[in-house]
Amino acid sequence: PFGRALEGIRENEGRMRALGYPTYRYRLAAFVIAAAFAGLAGATTALYNGYANPSQLYWHTSGLVLIAVIVGGTRSLLGAVLGAFFVTIVQLVISSYTEHWQLLLGAVFIAVVLFLPGGLISLGRLGWLRR
Predict the structure, then answer these.
(1) What pLDDT shows up at residue 13?
(2) Disulfide: which of 8, 43, 45, 123 matches 128 by Cβ 3.0-4.6 Å?
(3) Integer Cα distance of 4 and 13 in angstroms
(4) What is this structure's pTM?
(5) 110-118 — which CB contacts under 8 Å span 24+ positions?
(6) Whole-number Å distance between alpha carbons of 32 and 36
(7) Where are the domains of the chain?
């Protein structure tokens, strides 16, 4: 019910408000949950590395996260995971051959935005990944 309510708020907040849903509370809860996960991820990273470094907050890092989510698909958690996996594989494999792996990732990003607006996860919905 919580996820469906958030989907309804995303699609038409006025309608959800008219149906009696407290949209502000749902949105606030979603932001609190997201902030808790972000804080947990930051704390885990600091514990794993043994320190927190300002270079970890560089725009390139957050840009890669956004690209991963967009490439994978923004409307599902599985899409974000798929995008993160894909971007990490591209980074690891291509960077061993050339230092210009960002160029290939940028080309893939543009192709996905143009031809698969739903992200890579939409391939499964289209039946391309199903047998």
Answers:
(1) 93
(2) 123
(3) 12
(4) 0.67
(5) 112/70, 112/71, 113/70, 118/73, 118/75, 118/79
(6) 6
(7) 1-53, 58-131
Over 70: is that where the pLDDT of 128 sits?
A: no
Q: Which residue has the higher pLDDT, 34 or 102?
A: 34
Cα distances (angstroms) measured from residue 123 to each of 37, 83, 101, 108, 119: 28, 12, 24, 15, 8
- pLDDT confidence of residue 25: 95
pLDDT-derived band at 97 (thresholds 50, 70, 90) equals: confident
DSSP 3-41: HHHHHHHHH-HHHHHHTT--HHHHHHHHHHHHHHHHHHH
Closest to 56 in 3D by CA, of 44, 70, 42: 42
